[in-house]
Amino acid sequence: MSDKFDVVVxxxxxxxxxxxxxxxxxxxxxxxxxxxxxxxxxxxxxxTCLNVGCIPxxxxxxxxxxxxxxxxxxxxxxxxxxxxxxxxxxxxxxxDQIVKNLTGGVAGLLKANGVTVYEGHGKxxxxxxxxxxxxxxxxxxxxxxxxxxxxxxxxxxxxxAPVDQKVIVDSTGALEFQSVPxxxxxxxxxxxxxxxxxxxxxxxxxxxxxxxLDKFLVAADEQLAKEAMKIYTKQGLNILLGARVTGTEVKxxxxxxxxxxxxxxxxxxxxRLIVAVGRRPVTTDLLxxxxxxxxxxxxxxxxxxxxxxSVPGVYAIGDVVRGLMLAHKASEEGVVxxxxxxxxxxxxxxxxxxxxxxxxxxxxxxxxxxQQLKAEGVEINVGVFPFAASGRAMAAxxxxxxxxxxxxxxxxxxxxxxxxxxSAAELVQQGAIAMEFGTSAEDLGMMVFAHPTMSEAMKExxxxxxxxxxxxxxxxxR
Length: 478
Hints:
Keywords: Cytoplasm, Disulfide bond, FAD, Flavoprotein, NAD, Nucleotide-binding, Oxidoreductase, Redox-active center
Number of strands: 22
Radius of gyration: 24 Å
Catalytic activity: N(6)-[(R)-dihydrolipoyl]-L-lysyl-[protein] + NAD(+) = N(6)-[(R)-lipoyl]-L-lysyl-[protein] + NADH + H(+)
Helix content: 25-40%
Subunit structure: Homodimer.
CATH architecture of the largest domain: 3-Layer(bba) Sandwich
Enzyme class: oxidoreductase
Protein name: Dihydrolipoyl dehydrogenase
Strand content: 15-25%
CATH superfamily of the largest domain: FAD/NAD(P)-binding domain
């Protein structure tokens, strides 16, 4: 029997490594188990998010946007560049370097905080014992007072489009293309499909996104989703809604996708196909039959509001439990669980978790949307301010989209902030901070915002809630 720990964390993604660091900071003897290996065959911490998710995709999104601007948007500023080209291998190399720096950074943070890292596969046994299966097949058992399951998620696979990581790829493979495919298909018009589709579209691919649902971005506010559809279509994404993929056929370096939509049976041929139809929790060999921890009907680890499982002292966080599959949600749950183990009464506000789509412009929201509030029978006032009326947005040549603030008609309390446009993710965070402190639209409208900034759109939308916007004509109250 190896050392006994106060806390053993299985998984070193944004939930696991944050939980381990916070537990160690609180004086708990902590271990963290991770098996993921990077391209160099060495242990890579940081989970999906850091290695093959949020971070690398943002690196490619930023590179591809800069290429698009240099190629198509510099002339308006009076800048001429001559012919612009993209070295895809160099772009991928830069992305890999960023990932390497950050995974190394996580290793350094765990070490600095005194967390013991074990390389291998972690499995929860009975009695809060954790078995580590190392890369050479040998095993070691750790005893723990508390265990945190943070095993994350993996891309969903669908039978009609089996991934081979050559012609048909998942979100991981889509980060590794060494050249720009001429014709690119994407199955799934969710966050991942739209982000990856827009990367390769900017670099010159003809992109078709095939989405089974009839509605676009169902989780978003309908007004925002409508605007997003308009913007993405204008940018060249061909988005097909109500289109269900029935089969694929790979021949050499291309793939024919068969699907059914309102027009009947269709087929399209692509050079590459990305399958981005969501993610599912990783619970493969995570729990021994007698561990006592239960899964729900969808395969997630069952937990209460504070991430406690059915076994006292065993917790689960992040993508392996209910709720939004977002890195920042996982990290916050990790902090809350570590603090609860240490005896603090920490809690998490699940009502104010921001969601972001890192296309350009970004789309982001926090709180409730208009259709949710109407379904709940809440009377609301809505204020919208378009970036087309923002001096800062005009100066930046970035005027698509709007800020939308929804407030309770009776109390004026802000219930939702929805932004599509420049710096949407940062602006929504302003809304989240304000809402955490119970802001009213009037409060936001009375604050002094620096001029000229994108943030002024937030102030103007707040003023518009009560018909007091200065820089657009206010809607007449009926």
